[in-house]
Design the sequence.
């Protein structure tokens, strides 16, 4: 894990030096399946740069009260719930970018449409 962190940190520094706009905000995005240590890696990447961390797990926990259950017809469907989670993540990230604030984002979302919206 330390080798991965070192490699990612080096790549981030290279990317910052390659940027054509020196004051442009930087997004460091990590993605992976649940329980794959991406939250820990994202925290370790965000800390040295003092980036805010936007973590999908935090959003999911906050919205858990409306998460679908097998016995409930009044709660939102799994698909709508995933869309809601991404919508919150996307809007928070967009607000930070509009303020020229760099950030680290951690998400398990792998749907291409979601990822393209972050780019």
Sequence:
């Amino acid at each position: 894990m330390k080798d991965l962190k070192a490699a990612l940190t080096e790549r981030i520094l290279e990317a910052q030096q390659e940027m054509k706009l020196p004051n442009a905000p930087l997004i460091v995005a990590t993605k992976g399946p649940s329980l794959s240590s991406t939250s820990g890696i994202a925290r370790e990447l965000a800390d040295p740069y003092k980036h805010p961390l936007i973590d999908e797990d935090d959003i999911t926990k906050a919205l858990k009260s409306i998460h679908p259950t097998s016995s409930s017809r009044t709660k939102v469907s799994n698909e709508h719930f995933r869309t809601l989670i991404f919508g919150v993540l996307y809007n928070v990230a967009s607000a930070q970018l509009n303020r020229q604030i760099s950030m680290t984002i951690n998400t398990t979302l792998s749907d291409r449409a979601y990822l393209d919206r972050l780019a």
User: Anything to note?
Assistant: The chain has a mean pLDDT of 76. The first strand starts at residue 27 and ends at 31. The chain has one domain: 2-118. Residues 68 and 75 are 5 Å apart (CA to CA).
